[in-house]
Amino acid sequence: MAKKILIIGAVALGTKAATRCKRLNPDTEITLIDQGQFISYGGCGMPFYISSEVDNINALRATSANVVRDPKFFTTVKEIDCVKIRTKAIEINRQEKYVLTENMDTGEKEKLFYDDLVLGMGSRAILPNIKGMNLGNVTTIAGLEDAEKIRKHCESGMKHMAIIGASFTAIEIAVGLAEIWNIPCTLIKRSPRMLPNLVSSTISDMIKNDLREAGIKVISEEDILEFVGDENGNVCEVVTSKHRVKADHVVLAMGVKANSELAEQAGLKCNPKCGVCVNEYLQTSDPHIYAGGDLIAIKNLITEKEMHLPMGSLANRQGRIIGTNIAGGNPQTGMETFPGVVGTWCMKMHKGTVAGTGLNEDMAKKAGFDVMSINMEQLDKAHFYPEKNMMSLEVVVEKKTRRILGMQGYCADGMAVKARIDSMAMMLQFGKPTLHELSIAEVSYSPPLASAMDVFNTAGNVADNIVTGLGEFIKPEEFDKLFAERETNNYIFIDTRAGQAPLEIQKRYPDYWFNIPLETFSERIDTIPQDKNIAFICNSGTRAYECLLKFKKHGRHAVNSSGGMQAMKKRGKKY
Amino acid sequence: MAKKILIIGAVALGTKAATRCKRLNPDTEITLIDQGQFISYGGCGMPFYISSEVDNINALRATSANVVRDPKFFTTVKEIDCVKIRTKAIEINRQEKYVLTENMDTGEKEKLFYDDLVLGMGSRAILPNIKGMNLGNVTTIAGLEDAEKIRKHCESGMKHMAIIGASFTAIEIAVGLAEIWNIPCTLIKRSPRMLPNLVSSTISDMIKNDLREAGIKVISEEDILEFVGDENGNVCEVVTSKHRVKADHVVLAMGVKANSELAEQAGLKCNPKCGVCVNEYLQTSDPHIYAGGDLIAIKNLITEKEMHLPMGSLANRQGRIIGTNIAGGNPQTGMETFPGVVGTWCMKMHKGTVAGTGLNEDMAKKAGFDVMSINMEQLDKAHFYPEKNMMSLEVVVEKKTRRILGMQGYCADGMAVKARIDSMAMMLQFGKPTLHELSIAEVSYSPPLASAMDVFNTAGNVADNIVTGLGEFIKPEEFDKLFAERETNNYIFIDTRAGQAPLEIQKRYPDYWFNIPLETFSERIDTIPQDKNIAFICNSGTRAYECLLKFKKHGRHAVNSSGGMQAMKKRGKKY
After folding, report:
1. pLDDT digits over A437-449, tens only?
2. Chain A nearest C-alpha distance from B243 (Å)
3. Which among B338, B442, B518 is the nearest to A425, CB-wise?
């Protein structure tokens, strides 16, 4: 008799597992159920449908040959034996190996028996408990129905949107609204930083400035008190601890949590914070039940602890592995494994793209590592090549071992920063990279695409210099603070950029800001007062570093603002 | 007494070693000599100066702050003790530890003593022995003087250029001439393929088509017999074994060889084909003599054999390591190492960029591996996202172990293909990646930058299917051959693309070309004749693969053209 496979959830993981299994082993009998109306869609595309960059919602449901992936597509083209939508799993009976399901339209219940079961129920939006939650035009962004509602409202004259939370999706929706629909948008969030578990405060500032330049307002460190409705029962205002924000549409995008209740009830091992526990074969604590995607707790290969990382790309990769394993394994190599993740991501915004992999400084410290996080700026392509952009890269490194734990970046050329972050992701996923390995990493070079000493390698070199103690660096926000407190902290600021005429800023702060270009620095060292604290700055940090070394050779001490004026500019900080 | 360091060669490696050493250990006494007029320039930028994309030649010699790196820059700003240009090393005396030098203008000889010596003499153009070599306007592209000459000729009305050889530089110059100057250009080369040691015949076809679309003529498999001169002693024609090519400028770009004679004469161990031998610390067989850059034989980490890989990026990375080591090592970690290379490169052409890492099929076979090389096509970004390009990726894999030995690619978005190739480069440099590791490689995902199942992962999946034997694929050029021989080989061609109306090509070849879309394939299987050989094709290979599996399930056999019509289009092949 054919092996019976039941798959719960048919968005990314479930459909991938079903089709892969069927291709490898056509003799299996596969039933795919989902509680939604739509299956197999690209949820990460919703912000681009809302913005209208993706014109038709069916594009998110279609193959690259424009065939819509509805149940009929799966039964005929993919030859999946049975596909049921609007069908909810309400109980897993592991002893008798069936799942009790309920048709959401008719209420009809049915027992679906399995030999192997796949759980791909994904995640759902975390909802706050706030007065006015049920007003009209307060939506989540959990599925195509939500995306459709928001897009229709954009088309019919939305005036102000407020987004609660600042997830990737939240930011992408805000950018689309600002860029394409010209609808004012306010992002309201509790944490002071953007993507606090993913980037540093330096890169968070860059994200904020990027959004500000798109016309998006970001409100941080405020609690939502109430959504206020108008006479029609639709939302018209968001009341926070400090503001009243006009909004005729509110999107709740505070992140997601795994839909793990059904698995818990069935006695499968779960991590209460992260989701259903699985082994390397993506089997739950019951070897006949597999799980993947947003539903599971996944091992972080750097911290070696479980985490929740809801990403469509992981669901797809895991779906294929589950598909292989329920088909009986790869015909040549047997069961396949998914050892874990390092946490790699990217997001296009308005002027730039931000990306990262591994741990940021905060997460590394939380995991018990003694780290430094070093940011730097360099052009993404040869400096003599006409097209180029300043790229920010930040390296998180364990001080004692020089092991790299993460890298984050921001650049106007999104693919350029993706190239560097993905390269680091491979080093983190398949090794334990050191700063030296980053310095000699053999990324490809040609002037239209990279520098001979590429920004990727330079990030390693800069971090190496700093960890070695060759020069003391301060972060851009620390420079801001030193400058703001200049009247009391006895600091003066030496600008080492080339320049003949006095810089505008020197005229404004003649007692604090001095220009001593690298080229004439050595001969002018003695003009730098001995009784002052000294901070250097230049365009990107390189020239100031060279001055710092010369200064040190003369027995003097100073600090260098890493990333220089370029980091200031990206953070929207004017001097 | 200060440690005396002498560095021969001051283009990339030498200057990097000198400045790094001085920054780490200001007490060293460094002398830097070079036989040229210009030092520390970005040689890889020459094609872009010739094209005029880089306006001023000084841009190739300047820092990113626009300061020209001349000898004075190195002595004052970088505090190198002595810099001598137009100074040639003519003998290394290892016993007495000096180098005999000769001033190329005055003939004056001088002994320069060293404690540590660095060899960075680089490489020189391989010159053919052809009648007419000394005619006017027959140049190499070995330095800025050559670039200046060619650029001036472009400005003053060059009519036709012929380039002998098809190195990166040759191709880049040809593209610049075609795109910017609108000067007809002919590339003449011996080998049938473009970059024969780097790419497959499939990708070679894509390069040829890319150049053809820029208006560049490529002549392959021909010997140069003679350069013919005009009445002024300038070249006017190139005579090959089959053609006479008009050319009032000829560039010899047949590759380079290491300038290793001086090292050989000094008794340093050399590899006759690849250059000076070094250990992991970049020391030659004499531990007081270091060498790097184009001069050295470098270990290929995949074949574990020595190779010659002349690249500015390697020279820069190696220069820093030599600088560290001659300074006495990194203050915290000691001597630094450069274990070898995998061979990573990229080149922007007219419509697309080609890039690669590791071995191509031919080189892998030469190195004794039993391999398959599998090409595929997929979009570089989410298929529903408006901006996107078809990317070609080719995976070279050892059949038995599924170990990946190389990857090459071509895409209109150069940074997109660089991102994937660099990711593979990291896997190859720091591991021994398998197909499974490629399938689960955690590259970053967001629809404007990648697919959920990214082209990088899909390349692993496709290769996995093929190595496992799930379907038989043929390369695009094999499909061409089957189609060309259709009247005798009993093949028919099933096009599985979606389509209601008969395709144009069916009307042309009604007896050979049939359209059976994937969507209706199963129900029409029995209409496919049993007495014919069958080849499938679709847009990119995916739909045809699914049909292949359905066909197989019915006990039938067919082959699938990998990369489909997209690979045909990129190769300039019309059906």
Report:
1. 999 999 999 999 9
2. 33
3. B442
